[in-house]
Amino acid sequence: MNTYPPVNTKVDFVQRYKAGEFGNASPTWDTFTDWASSSWKDAPDQLFHLRNRVRGGPTWYDVKSEDVASTWERICSTGQVRASDLYISAMAPTPKTLFQGEVVQSPIGLQMIHSTVAKPMREALREETIQTQGLISWSWLRLYLDPNSLDWLQILLDRYPEHVVEFSTYSVCWGTLPGLNTVVWEVRLY
Fold it and tell me: Rounded to the nearest 10 degrees, what angle do helices 134-144 and 147-159 cross at?
């Protein structure tokens, strides 16, 4: 089994995520300036997600393009989050969410918590959390993930033993790689 270096911190994860190491992802920008110079900010009706490099830190969903600058400034001016801890991702097509959760290959087999609620993951898991393991988890994954997404999830579980893979699966293909209905949001040590 060919393993990769463990993901030791959220900062480490974000750099590797932005570089594409974990496969299909949400388009992501390291800084406000990077985002402001992208063409994504001009996409009609595209919403954005202000994310945090601090594990478990606050996050801001569904920010309109015209509100990204003021939201960024407000967050930083209150001292709630440092600008260096923020980054921006395109908001996924949340209303088209079929299935999402966290999965880890543990010593006792595949463990998963998931939800079928079509909301951002933190909200969805607060509303509905289903816990499964082993073949039941694989059955859920096979039901919702397209074959390429399922193959990629298996690759991630093999490359990053003892890591949680956080994902969302949609009724459409979306993300940085064509033809995949599942986006990886995070890979972190268990």
Answer: 140
Position 80: which residue type?
A: Q
pTM: 0.92
Q: Take residue 141 and report the two structure tokens written for it.
A: 């994954």
94 in Cβ contact with 153 (< 8 Å): no
Is residue 29 within 8 Å of residue 53, measured between CB atoms?
no
Q: Which residue has the tokens 């590797």?
A: 16
**pLDDT tens over the chain, length 190 residues:** 577 999 999 999 999 999 999 999 999 999 999 999 999 999 999 999 999 999 889 999 999 999 999 999 999 999 889 999 999 999 999 999 999 999 999 988 999 999 999 999 999 999 999 999 999 999 999 999 999 999 999 999 999 999 999 999 999 999 999 999 999 999 999 9
Secondary structure of the chain as H, E, C letters: CCCCCCCCCHHHHHHHHHCCCCCCCCCEECCHHHHHCCHHHHCCCCEEEEEECCCCCCCEEEEEHHHHHHHHHHHHHCCCCCHHHEEEEECCCHHHEEEEEEEEEECCEEEEEEECCCCCHHHHHHHCCEEEEHHHHHHHHHHHCCHHHHHHHHHHHHHCCCEEEEEEEECCCCCCCCCCCEEEEEEEEC
